């Protein structure tokens, strides 16, 4: 792309998220930030904005993106086990700037789609973007780094940019936009992902959390405990009924604020 050519086309990839409480399908908060940044850049550069989703066109969560400002959502048919990155890359060739979230919100989403898509297209990839500006066919990105550090990087277009959940954008939800928008399914199916068969999917198992009483002893007392061989155990209750023994345990838990009743 020449340095004098303006930014003509921007694409935003959106996914289906999960409500934090009900687990119902809804828009992804991260992708909503990417959409708002894409809308802002499209207005600033008078560029066309394409909003794409790989999945089921009948999913009601897509209407949320219409309420967030997407005028038209193009849905590429993609079932479980299909290669979404290949289908998206086939559609996005020639697009100057592709915006995505860092990862979808499903239980088994790996966060690898931006990387696979950039590899398919041969584009540069910048992740954890907080803010994006485009000038002279170069994108300047403020990038999120650990421990509150920020870094400014530049990349020549075309590029894929993954937007961080703390990006500087404020999406506005309006029901009145939904009737004016359109969800357009694309009939061409995606090919099967040959690597998907190698993955083993299993339900996550929550490990029990061990309750530990807060340490109240001074540093000197802890040093003595570490250097002596005397018993470090608690009280051993031998006599009494089961109710009395249970009361001793409950008193201990309350004393160390391990329970709140």
From TrEMBL:
It comes from Trinickia symbiotica. InterPro entries: ETF_a/b_N, Rossmann-like_a/b/a_fold. Residues 16-203 form the Electron transfer flavoprotein alpha/beta-subunit N-terminal domain. Pfam families: ETF. This is Drug:proton antiporter. It comes from the Bacteria. Keywords: Electron transport, Transport.
């Amino acid at each position: 792309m020449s340095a004098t050519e303006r930014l003509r086309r921007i694409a935003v990839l959106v996914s289906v998220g999960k409500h934090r409480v009900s687990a119902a399908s809804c828009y992804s908060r991260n992708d909503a930030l990417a959409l708002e940044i894409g809308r802002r850049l499209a207005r600033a550069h008078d560029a066309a904005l394409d909003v794409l989703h790989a999945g089921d066109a009948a999913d009601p969560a897509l209407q949320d993106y219409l309420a967030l400002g997407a005028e038209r959502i193009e849905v590429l048919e993609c079932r479980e086990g299909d290669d979404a990155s290949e289908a998206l890359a086939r559609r996005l060739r020639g697009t100057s700037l592709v915006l995505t979230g860092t990862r979808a919100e499903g239980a088994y989403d790996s966060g690898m789609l931006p990387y696979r898509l950039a590899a398919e297209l041969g584009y540069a990839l910048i992740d954890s973007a907080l803010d994006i500006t485009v000038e002279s066919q170069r994108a300047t990105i403020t990038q999120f780094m650990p421990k509150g550090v920020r870094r400014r990087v530049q990349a020549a277009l075309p590029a894929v940019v993954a937007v961080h959940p703390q990006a500087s954008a404020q999406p506005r939800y309006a029901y009145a936009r939904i009737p004016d928008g359109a969800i357009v399914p694309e009939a061409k199916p995606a090919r099967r992902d040959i690597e998907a068969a190698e993955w083993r999917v299993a339900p996550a198992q929550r490990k029990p959390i061990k309750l530990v009483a807060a340490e109240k002893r001074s540093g000197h007392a802890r040093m003595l405990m570490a250097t002596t061989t005397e018993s470090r155990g608690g009280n051993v209750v031998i006599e009494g009924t089961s109710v009395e023994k249970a009361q001793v345990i409950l008193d201990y838990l309350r004393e160390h604020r391990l329970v709140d009743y």
